[in-house]
Every structure is written in C-alpha cells, then in structure tokens.
Amino acid sequence: MTSEEIGYRGPTACAAAGITYRQLDYWARTGLVEPSVRPAYGSGTQRLYSFRDVVVLKIVKRFLDTGVSLQNIRSAVQHLRERGFCDLERMTLMSDGATVYECTSPDEVHALLQGGQGIFGIAVGVVWRDVENALSQLHGERVDTGETLVGHNPADELARRRNRAV
To answer: In this protein, which residues make up the domain named HTH merR-type (predicted)?
Structure first.
C-alpha cells in the first residue's frame, strides 16, 4: 500500500512524532498541523493523519525543542504544505532561531554557515526515515475501508486477532 492509502490516528501520530496528545490536539485546533486525511467533526470522531502530516509534526517538535518561535514555525509549516511530497525528503531546514530557511543543496547550507551566526539544521530526510521506522511498528488504518493495519510489532497478538476477526 502507498502512504496516501494509510492514515494514522492521533495516539499513533503522537508516538511516531514524539509529542503528547495535548500538543497534537492544540496544534490541530489552532491550525498549525491539521490532519489531512480526516479532521475531527465533533465529539467521538477520530482525526486521521497522513504520513506527511506525521513528518511535519516531528519537524515542528524539533523546532520547538530548539527554541524557534511559534510564528516562524507557522511560516515554515505553511512553506512545507506548499512543497511537493517527494521534495520534502531532499530538503534541509535551517534556522538561526529567528528565521527558518530551506536549503536543497550543500552550497545553500554552506552559504548560510558563512554568515557567522549560530545555525542549526533539520535534515528532513532523516526525520522522514525516523517516522517511517516508527510507523512501521505501529498501527495504521486504510483510508478507504477503515481496516486496521498492524505494524511489524511481533508482541501485538491482540491487534492481529482483532484484525482477523474483521
């Protein structure tokens, strides 16, 4: 199955991105990172996040951990939304704490480092692979049927039995 055919519920997205459910809920309600597969429609409905959403969640978490302002994170997230899916994997996001820059080549990274100020970077491809690895061991959901997809966690016998019963 392709990543567009699989969605992830809130607790799974939190586990893969390394955030709390409270953060996830707040970010969804304020529009920072909204689920692109299925938003919550009221009490009792489940948000469903795409793989790309989870990658963005983890990037936001890393920015917050390094002290980037929420305003700059919002700008970076908007920029990521406008980029193509495959473009993300080859991107490096750099920040001096005040501004977030996109670098797609080593020359661009080098040019930023020449400025002399302290800069940190997030290699989106590394985050991509981290999320991919985490999600492979967690449960997903088929977008079209809602069927639970069990990750590669051999200890999760209950989920395997539940999935067979469907």
So the answer is: 16-79
